[in-house]
Give the backbone structure.
Amino acid sequence: MPPRSRRQELARYARRAVELGAQGAKIVGPRAVRCAQWVRLKCQYGCDGYGGCHTCPPYSPTPERTRQVLDEYAHLLLVHVGRWRSASRIATRLEREIFLEGHHKAFAWGAGPCVLCRSCDPSGPCRHPDRARPSMEACGIDVFATARRAGFPIAVVRLRREQANYFALVGIE
Ligand code: SF4
């Protein structure tokens, strides 16, 4: 368990996520974040965003690489939001704030495709590399298993009127 001052700092980041509009946030360890090969299949077969931007497969990190990256962190912040566009916005803001507090490894994973530009040309350079971040699912993270393990609600959405739950992740240290 981290020392008290570190626990307080981590708790403050969770509160900050809520201040920025999240419904909730929780500090988790790397092994609480699940990666799976099938996640990539869902991108490749069934998502019209496949290959459409720098932050999506096949350009985003594979599940194997993501597993290795996650294991380089001791603490990550799992963020629960109600709108997927909010997930990446909140996560990149947190990444910047946490980085500026001295956590040089701070890195954000968002939700869904990148929407910072009207269109994306993955054969050219990214126009906003400071804010464009891959989604959790684009990197092979099993968002369903990860959210459930952390005690957050998540279920398959079958009807438009059903409430969806979205998640972002910020690696801290
Ligand atoms: S910021 Fe623009 S260029 Fe970069 S990944 Fe997003 S949409 Fe593509």
Q: What stands out?
A: The beta strands are 24-28, 76-81, 107-109, 166-171. Residues 53-55, 114, 116-117, 120, 126-128, 132 surround iron/sulfur cluster (CB under 6 Å).
